[in-house]
Design a protein that fits this description.
- The protein is of the alpha+beta class.
- It has 4 domains: about 20-175, 2-Layer Sandwich (Alpha-D-Glucose-1,6-Bisphosphate, Chain A, domain 4); about 195-285 and about 350-395 and about 425-440, Ribonuclease Z/Hydroxyacylglutathione hydrolase-like (Metallo-beta-lactamase, Chain A); about 295-345; about 440-505, no CATH class.
- The chain has helices spanning about 45-50, 55, 155-175, 235-245, 265, 280-290, 300-320, 325-345, 410-420, 440-460, 465-475, 495-505; strands at about 20-25, 30-40, 70-75, 80-85, 90-100, 105-110, 120-130, 135-145, 190-195, 200-205, 205-210, 215-220, 225-230, 255, 275-280, 355, 360-365, 365-370, 385, 390-395, 430.
- The strands form 3 sheets. Strands 1-2-8-7-6-5-4-3 form an 8-stranded antiparallel β-sheet, with helices on one face.
- α9 (about 410-420) runs antiparallel to α10, α10 crosses α12 (about 495-505) and α11 (about 465-475) packs across α12 (about 495-505).
- The longest helix is centred in the middle third of the chain and has 22 residues, at about 325-345.
């Protein structure tokens, strides 16, 4: 594997309807990345092609020789995942320590440039039967030492691992590993890795920032200053973002745009001084000032989930006998408790500047449009549109392969607003969660989901079914190909309760 591969691993990999990937755990001493992919083929076939056809799906850009056909995997204990090099040279990438044909593979070792560090790793690949094929689960845990912390490698490794197995999926299903998807670009975006955030350079001066707590963010470096789109869940998150931006530029942050009022996009506002202008839709400012956002959804459920996680980790630690596992759980507990303390610092800070339908900012040679195209995810969502770059930031109005939180939705207008979005001339969408995408059919897929869930909920409501029961009974599995989180019948209860409330409001008009 070429030593530049992790630094350049900005391929937008978690393709719509196809994969779930994340950094499951990360600290200065190590990290775990996980990927889960559904492949339309039986487990035995997928297993066979992983082991015996690795050269057909592994990206040659992530080899030392530049030719993935030089890769082989020996299917035996202590088997070598090796690569032939010129002049009778070679490299051992991983070692096979356990295998059950058609079910599991376990490798040991450090991939690519990790081999030059004081690091070791363990990769487990599981093949499970799933509706229509195989659920492939990959977990790669790396531990060791590197100046600056092993956690700085987590996001780049996650990207590379996910890319490889997305190529496997494409190879198994279509006979070619070329990634031809709705949500990926043909070439990787350059990556800059900070202590907390990974920045993908999607256009000149435009970066997609992921890795913090809460929303994904967009960093726009202009001639004289920097504009941010959203700022995360806590003041500490925003401070970490600002600090990592120094790797991109020494220009100061002078503008923050909040796409909507939810806590995971706005609770970083308070760290910015009077020299920074915070802008949002007029509805957003009213919501932050008057909705008591610290004591309503979606923040309440988030805090409850955090409290449950802390209590669960405390019990697991008390019951755990394995020393290494107990230590790992202890790190998880420390991180959860740290987030709880960070949230105590929050002082709800509303934008000082608002607009109603459209606001155009001229930042040197760059034009930035703030657009309200109609109600949807909330009563006042902002699209940030860069007409010259043909890029649009959607906040949570559309999250690609993710179903957005619907607890504040205005559903008929949401669908109409997305129609207006599709009329814009753009070639790349940067969502507030998930991964970027290019194809407008991704937006159409979400409109179809919204239409279906509201229609089903309306029918159940007409039958006298409660919102809570309706949330269990709606069947949206026909949308699973576009939204992989859908595993069976049912929907998030807060969204269905809001659909009922919205229908009540319509009936009273």
């Amino acid at each position: 594997m070429r030593h530049h591969i992790f630094a350049a691993a900005g391929v937008l990999l978690m393709c719509s309807g196809w994969a779930l990937a994340d950094v499951a755990d990360s600290s200065a001493n190590g990290f775990t990345v996980k990927t889960s992919i559904t492949i339309q083929a039986p487990p035995d076939e997928v297993y066979h092609k992983v082991v015996h056809n690795v050269g057909e799906w592994w990206n040659p850009e992530h080899t030392y020789s530049g030719d993935s056909h030089n890769l082989t995997i020996e299917e035996k204990p202590m088997g070598c995942f090796c690569e032939k090099l010129p002049n009778q040279g070679g490299v051992r990438h991983l070692e096979l320590v356990y295998f059950t044909p058609g079910k599991a593979l376990v490798f040991s070792g450090a991939l690519g440039p990790l081999q030059s560090l004081a690091a070791t790793g363990s990769m487990t690949i599981q093949f499970s039967p799933a509706e229509g094929g195989t659920r492939l689960g990959v977990a790669y845990t790396v531990a060791g030492y590197v100046a600056g912390g092993m956690n700085t490698w987590a996001a780049p490794v996650d990207s590379v691992i996910t890319e490889q197995f997305m190529r496997l999926k494409t190879y198994v299903e279509h006979g070619s590993a070329a990634l031809q998807t709705k949500t990926t670009s043909a070439a990787p975006f350059p990556v800059t890795q900070g202590k907390a955030y990974k920045f993908e350079k999607v256009a000149e001066g435009v970066y997609y920032a992921t890795g913090g707590v809460g929303s994904n963010n967009v960093v726009i470096v202009n001639d004289q200053d920097v504009l941010l789109v959203d700022d995360g869940t806590t003041p500490a998150t925003a401070r970490a973002l600002v600090e990592d931006i120094k790797l991109l530029t020494d220009k100061p942050v002078r503008t923050v745009v909040n796409t909507h009022f939810h806590y995971d996009h706005t609770f970083g506002n308070q760290v910015f001084g009077p020299e920074v202008e915070i802008i949002g839709h007029e509805y957003l400012r009213n919501a932050m000032l008057n909705f008591d956002v610290l004591h309503r959804e979606p923040y309440l459920t988030s805090m409850g989930t955090l409290a449950t996680r802390i209590a669960g980790l405390q019990k697991q630690i008390a019951d755990e006998k394995d020393v290494s596992r107990k230590a790992s759980l202890g790190k998880d507990l420390t991180a959860a408790e740290s987030l709880r303390e960070q949230l105590k610092e929050v002082k709800v800070t509303a934008p000082g500047r608002t607009y109603a339908t459209k606001l155009i900012l001229h930042k040197g040679s760059r034009e930035i449009q703030l657009l309200f195209l109609g109600r949807g995810h909330t009563g006042g969502d902002t699209f940030v549109y860069l007409p010259q770059e043909r890029i649009v930031c959607t906040g949570d109005m559309d999250e690609g392969a993710r179903v957005a939180y619907m607890g504040d939705g205005v559903f008929d207008e949401w669908i109409a607003s997305l129609d207006e979005l599709k009329k814009l001339d753009f070639q790349l969408v940067l969502p507030g969660h998930g991964v970027p995408f290019r194809d407008k059919t991704v937006i159409t897929a979400f409109q179809s989901y919204l239409s279906d869930i509201t229609s089903q909920a309306a029918a159940l409501r007409k039958q006298g079914v409660s919102a809570e029961d309706a949330a269990k009974r709606v069947d949206l599995t026909s949308h699973k190909k576009d939204f992989p989180d859908i595993q069976g019948p049912g929907a998030e209860p807060r969204g269905v309760r809001r659909i009922y409330q919205w229908m009540d409001e319509r009936d009273k008009r």
